[in-house]
């Protein structure tokens, strides 16, 4: 009896203390509008009984209705605030107190990956890796993009003349993975044991992480470990990690062999005795030094010149994996694996999905597709005209088409931030520290008050210069914004354009589906509820 009273007292004291610690959050939450709150259950009942599509649609509808701020309680303790208007989104993404990711990013188990790392870690790693994604480097990737685009065109040829439609995503997935292996790791996927299993593992992993993030009960690690999702996650993670480890092993061996060959060439090709004699003639003061010391200085000077010369040339070797493995930051093995995994997951799936989404949009809008093809023919009017960066820039209508595809189908539809200190969103509302903020790009990109009455329609003219200048700069954020934006946004745009130029030059795409049939759901990325079903016929 005494023990029961004692435990009850402890529990009551704990609950009182917990309530007062959370009181400021409840007081703040009272200022934010929302749908009906079911008390201790929060807003969970609104989402019960709905599938992935239904939950995503409900979130979209709520954000349209409460188009400034809306709160969502997951039970009595977890509060999410969705920030929906461009001005407030800009304040959040540019604020130094909103650079940390919320707790559910830990579910990715990528402590060093750029997507989920703590800000202090991210800041160092992002600075180290930025060089791998500068425009000069990206231009050297275009031949790899072209090679993979041509292979994709050839792979699609088996579907010519068939009445049954095929899933475009199944093809773009392989192509995007090829691109990542070639551009970021300097590897040819044909020479390594990596392919469909990796992409399927990523999809399965995303579903598990998404299911966990949407279920309050699965936030507990012990409870989550008893679920099917945990088993799916571990099985998929093993596939992805094994592939990442294999990439690192192969690349390290290649770099070691290359360095060894360079050293051997240098030792065999340099006549140090001759250089020593010439140095003494030019600099008599060196006679006071030992011959070995003079030769060491000569070798060091030669190595410095070789390095400087390499830096001045168009970069060809210092790709992503080279920077990760050979960086002055000295990444640990786990950090290297996190970065490799992040690039494979984010890079390949993003490119694969966005290419497939764009093809679906063009297949359901044949008049827009033909206008794109006409522009491509104008720019690449003969085989002598190269597909290079300068010519890709000339494709202004294709640029608008790609942006419109990114508007309607942002691959990452929702992101999160956590406030580290109070931040004023407007004159009336100050968000306290410790609040999870969500930004729904999918809804932001479909607001009628921003995009007009045709906000839900596929209309590339939304990105005509005269329309763009009227909109808030944070109305369109397919790659997020602010300091922690996507490092690979330029990569994605160049890759997408290169793929589309080759695909649309080779084939006319059509679909039995209409634009209205395209319904979306989300795990981590935005997915169609159906397959990307298209058919092709060759162009002349």
From TrEMBL:
As for membrane topology, the entry says: Peripheral membrane protein
Localisation: Endoplasmic reticulum membrane; Microsome membrane
Q: Where is the signal peptide?
A: none
Q: What is its main location?
A: endoplasmic reticulum
User: Which Gene Ontology terms of cellular component type are present?
Assistant: endoplasmic reticulum membrane
> Which InterPro entries does the entry link to?
Cyt_P450, Cyt_P450_CS, Cyt_P450_E_grp-I, Cyt_P450_sf, Cytochrome_P450_Monoox
**PROSITE patterns to which the protein is assigned, alphabetical:** CYTOCHROME_P450
Query: What does the record give as cofactor?
Result: heme
Q: Which domain of life is it from?
A: Eukaryota
UniProt keyword annotations, A-Z: Endoplasmic reticulum, Heme, Iron, Membrane, Metal-binding, Microsome, Monooxygenase, Oxidoreductase
Q: Name one Pfam family in it.
A: p450
- List GO molecular-function terms, semicolon-separated: heme binding; iron ion binding; monooxygenase activity; oxidoreductase activity, acting on paired donors, with incorporation or reduction of molecular oxygen
The record lists heme as bound by: 486
State the family it belongs to. Belongs to the cytochrome P450 family.
Q: What does this protein do?
A: May be involved in the metabolism of insect hormones and in the breakdown of synthetic insecticides.
Q: What is this protein called?
A: Cytochrome P450
